[in-house]
Design brief:
Helices cover 55% and strands 19% of the residues. Strands 3-2-1-6-5-4 form a six-stranded antiparallel sheet.
Length: 473
């Protein structure tokens, strides 16, 4: 096809370059040849385009056939990439949620630790003994008061069975019974006597059951058991019971002491009314008995009121620098007539007057007068009472001793001589009394003046009562 096109083009060029030279027939033949060549060229061009299109279609089909797997793989890659991105986003979101939850748990843990430390601080600060057990009867928490009262090692006792920690089987039984009751509300109060290192003491034991289910959880269904721990609080009521008994004894003793002089007064007044006093001398004796009993009754009431005021803190104290020598001499002058009636000699060995102590004059005078009066009462005739003072300048103390050669006090009674209404039975026949004089002295010396009262005694040889006060600076 290409050669035909070239031949036609040459003929056409030859005719154009030699016009008029060739013969007419030749011009006609050349023109025909040129037309034929042009027709061939047009046909060739048509065929060439058709073939080119066919070749292009074949190339496109071949390229399409080769690109189809590539496109499919590309689509798969895009799908996988999208899925992976979604997984990454989901994983990132999960990680963020986990981090957030971890932070929340960390905050909750800190809050729980803070609450636990706060609870421990509260328990440790309580003066009463506190025990906390878990559902397995193991000790999980206790304070120092509990360890000291029940005599166990606080550090080693943690997470130990309560029956191994406590030596009191009754208390262990109370804790177990409370846990087994599964009581989610209410408490049990029991009075229990415990043997402690300092002696037997009485405790009010308050037992409370603590549910082990987490906070906010619904209570168990009816008939469903809920294991729980127990909180036991031991409040020492030993002193309260002693005070209650002392109050009862006080009322009983006061009633008895008041009844005795009142009975005497009533009896002698009835005799006077009935005319049993036949003469003036008998009448005067009756009057003296009534007067003495009335004075005794007044002293008893005064002592009771003074002790009550001192114990309640309502007494008015007026402390001024006082000379013990002056106070003791005044008290000796008052008690001297009673001593002379029994031929008792009073020996004075007093320090100079310039040694002074800060004291309420009236109260300190009452205390020394009571001690001197007791010495006279329990010293037989022709005995001796020695009143002496000594100064310890190193300790800045002044010490007063009132010694007698009386009957003495038995050792079993010696620790109780300063108790209210207490009187040694072996010496009760020697003198009357209410048993409040020495108790009042103790309150005046120790409570009001912050001093120290002491006593030494030997049966058959005598007693020595003394007190120690601070020197004025």
């Amino acid at each position: 096809m290409l050669s035909l096109m070239l031949g036609g083009a040459a003929c056409f060029a030859h005719a154009a370059l030699a016009p008029g030279v060739a013969h007419a027939s030749e011009r006609a033949a050349g023109a025909a040849l040129c037309l034929a060549s042009a027709a061939c060229a047009v046909g060739a061009n048509v065929l060439l385009r058709r073939d080119a299109r066919a070749i292009a279609d074949r190339i496109r089909d071949m390229a399409g056939a080769r690109l189809a797997p590539v496109q499919a793989e590309t689509l798969q890659l895009r799908f996988l990439s999208s899925a992976i991105n979604q997984l990454i986003e989901a994983a990132a979101k999960s990680v963020d949620d986990a981090n957030l939850r971890a932070k929340e748990l960390e905050i909750e843990l800190k809050v729980a630790n803070a609450e636990r430390q706060h609870a421990e601080a509260i328990i440790y600060s309580i003066s009463d003994a506190v025990l906390v057990t878990d559902p397995f009867d193991e000790l999980v928490m206790a304070n120092e008061s509990a360890a000291r009262t029940l005599d166990f090692d606080l550090e080693r006792a943690s997470r130990s069975p309560v029956d191994r920690v406590l030596a009191d089987p009754k208390l262990v039984e109370l804790i177990r019974d409370m846990r087994q009751s599964h009581s989610r509300s209410g408490r049990r109060i029991v009075e229990h006597r415990v043997r402690t290192p300092g002696g037997d003491r009485t405790f009010k034991v308050t037992l409370s059951c603590v549910a082990s289910s987490p906070a906010g959880a619904s209570p168990p269904a009816l008939g469903e058991e809920s294991s729980a721990g127990v909180v036991a609080v031991l409040h020492d009521v030993t002193r309260e019971k002693e005070v209650a008994e002392m109050k009862n004894d006080f009322v009983s003793n006061v009633s008895h002491e008041l009844r005795t002089p009142l009975a005497s007064i009533k009896a002698y007044i009835e005799m006077l009314i009935d005319g049993e006093a036949e003469n003036e001398k008998t009448t005067r004796e009756f009057y003296e008995v009534i007067q003495n009993e009335a004075n005794r009754l007044g002293r008893l009431i005064d002592n009771i009121l003074n002790i009550s005021r001192i114990e309640s803190g309502l007494v008015q104290v007026n402390k001024q620098p006082q000379s013990l020598m002056v106070l003791l001499k005044e008290a000796i002058e008052v008690i001297a007539p009673q001593a002379r009636m029994k031929n008792i000699q009073i020996v004075e060995n007093l320090t100079p007057a310039f040694y002074q102590t800060s004291a309420d004059r009236d109260m300190l005078y009452q205390a020394t007068l009571n001690l001197l009066s007791n010495a006279v009462k329990y010293t037989p005739e022709r005995g001796t009472i020695t009143v002496e003072t000594a100064v310890d300048e190193a300790k800045k103390k002044v010490i007063t001793r009132i010694s007698d050669t009386g009957v003495g006090i038995p050792p079993k009674d010696l620790p109780f001589v300063f108790d209210k209404f207490y009187r040694a039975e072996s010496n009760s026949h020697m003198a009357k009394g209410s048993g409040l004089g020495l108790s009042l002295v103790k309150h005046i010396i120790e409570t009001v003046h912050r001093g120290r009262l002491f006593v030494e005694s030997h049966v058959g040889k005598g007693s020595c009562f003394g007190f120690e006060l601070d020197l004025c600076e």
